[in-house]
Amino acid sequence: MAMRVTNWWLSEEATQLKDDRELLARLHDSVLHQVRCTPQTVEPIELLAGVFRNDRVAAPFRLWLVLLIAEIGTVGRRLAAQDADRRSALELGVILSAHELAVERAVEAIARVLLRRWPDECEAVRCGLAFLSAAFPDSAYEVGIIESIGEFAATCEPHRAAMLTLVYALASAEESALPYSYKAAITITPIELSDIPSPLAPAVFAGLDVLHRMLQLESGLVFAATFG
Asked: pTM score, two decimals?
C-alpha cells in the first residue's frame, strides 16, 4: 500500500519529473525534509525496503535506496553528533527525539531482512549494506556478516577500505579500534573541517556521521559512472 508521504511517487505522471535524479531528490525530500525526520518519516520505510528487495531495480538505485534507509535509521544519532557542542553547552545531553527514536526502531526492525542480501549484492550495494551494519550491529551479528565486512575491506582501494574499516569497528563494537579507524577515515576523505563532528560527540554517533559523509561521496561516484 502506498504511504501518504510517497503517494506522489507512485501516482504522478513520469513526464512531470525531469529525470531519475529528480525523482530521487524528491523522494529523499519527502522522507527526510531538510535532512531531518518528521512524524511522517516512519511511514514509507517498509515501502522503500520492498523496492530495494526487488531484483528488477538496477544496482545504483538499490544502493541509493539502502543508503536512504540507513540515513533515516541514523538521523537522530548523526544530528546529535553534529550538534554536540551546542547540546553540551546547554546541558541537553544526546537524548533523541520521539520521532528520531521511532524511525530508528522501524529501520532496525527491517535491517536483518536487508542484510541477508549481502552475499548476492554487488560491491557498491554492499557498501550501503555495510552502513546499515554499522548502524545496527546486533542485526549484523545475527545475520553473520561482520567478518565478511572485514574481509571485504581488505580487498578494496584505500578510500573504500578506510570506510569499511570504520564500519567494521562500529559493527563489531571494537571500541579500542574505533578512534584509529575514525581518524583514518577523516584523513583520507575530503571532509571540510567544519563538518567533522565535535570531540564531545559520542564516538559511535561521530563515527556514523563521518561514515555517512563518506558514503555520500561513494554513491555520488557510482551515479556519475552510471549516468555520466
From this structure: 0.84
3-state helix, strand, coil in the chain (%, to 5): 75, 0, 25
Give me 125's grid cell: 550495494
Instruction: Say yes or no to pLDDT of 211 above 80.
Output: yes
Measured distance CA(151)–CA(212) in Å, rounded: 21
Q: In sequence order, what are the residues at sequence separation of 6 or more whose Cβ sits closer than 8 angstroms to the Cβ of residue 76? A: 37, 96, 97, 100, 101, 103, 104
Whole-number pLDDT of residue 185? 81
Residues in the chain: 228
Cβ distance 134 to 68 under 8 Å? no
Tell me the CA distances in angstroms from 186 to 107, 211, 213, one per residue in order: 26, 9, 10
Is residue 77 over pLDDT 80?
yes
Q: What gap in Å lies between CA 181 and CA 103, rounded to an integer?
A: 27
Greatest Cα pair distance in the chain: 53
Amino acid at the residue 212: H
Mean residue pLDDT of the chain comes to 81
Q: How far apart are CA 52 and CA 73, in angstroms?
A: 15
Residue 192 is predicted with a pLDDT of: 66
Pick from 26, 60, 20: which is nearest to 220 by CA?
60
CA proximity to 126, closest of 155, 169, 158: 155
pLDDT value at position 6?
Answer: 46
